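As a next step, the fold was encoded as tokens, giving this record:
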Amino acid sequence: MLDEIQAFTAAGPSGARLKLADVTDFEWDTVYGFAPNMPIQMYRSRLGDDYKMGPLGETLTDDTSVLVFTNAGAVVAQVPVGPPVFIIGLDAEPHGTDAALTVTNEDPGPYSALNLGE
């Protein structure tokens, strides 16, 4: 999925939208976007007190955002997104199956900025 997001942002002009349902191969009904360095308490407030980041937590950097997909309240996938792609303005709010990433940077360059929304 990360490869598809990177390929899309490299080709997509500002305003281009990538619907997450088009690049996932698993069932999900909600996606949450967590900003870099968001405390584990924020994850747990959205995903449940028993949420554990697992091995994902060892791979995160100061620039890595995380998309967490759930189905019927259970976590089904966690996707780290980091440079050269940045998802900005993440607030850990739930988004449904119409969620999309929208390119916000004006011109192609080595880095891409995206927003998560519906």
Remarks:
- Residues 21 and 79 are 14 Å apart (CA to CA).
